[in-house]
Specification:
- The protein has about 160 residues and is mostly helical.
- Helix 1 packs antiparallel against helix 2 and helix 1 packs parallel to helix 3.
- The radius of gyration is 32 Å and the shape is elongated.
């Protein structure tokens, strides 16, 4: 039994659409990972989503243009949605959870030298900081005395 070239071509287009859907949701998962590690304000989340979906539409159009001469067909949209759905059901949650866990552990390990250094330097710089505070308190008292004296002299005139 021979399969026609047209059916093979449409299968290739469907596969490309499927992989495009998986790719789009994978990139969105990367964005979700960044959001979990570095919390964002709501307006920034909205702006990121807007930029992502504009870029996603461009990627989808480029895939359609390259694979299917720009024609939008139902099975192409179905392929993208199927790729997104399967990726979301099978991989997305685990990928985000594991990635966030590993990145948090990596950041914890990489930050340890800075924490140790700050603990070592806290005592000498803390001593200097206390002396500086004491000096500024002394200056403030002296300035208050000077202002009081100037007011008294001005009131005598």
């Amino acid at each position: 039994m021979q399969v026609s070239a047209e059916i093979l071509r449409e299968t290739d287009v469907f596969l490309a659409a499927f992989l495009t859907g998986v790719f789009l949701l994978f990139v969105y998962d990367l964005l979700r990972i960044v959001r979990k590690i570095l919390p964002h304000k709501m307006w920034l989340v909205g702006a990121e989503d807007l930029i992502f979906w504009i870029c996603g539409a461009i990627v989808l159009f480029a895939m359609l243009y390259r694979e299917n001469s720009g024609y939008i067909r139902g099975f192409v949209i179905g392929g993208v949605l199927t790729g997104m759905l399967l990726y979301n059901l099978l991989l997305s949650a685990r990928f985000v959870t594991v990635s966030v866990f590993l990145l948090e552990k990596l950041l914890f390990v990489l930050s340890r030298p800075f924490v140790w250094t700050s603990r070592i330097l806290r005592r000498p710089f803390g001593f200097v900081g206390k002396k500086i505070k004491k000096f500024f308190r002394f200056l403030k008292k002296q300035l208050k005395k000077l202002c009081k004296m100037v007011r008294m002299v001005l009131c005598k005139f």
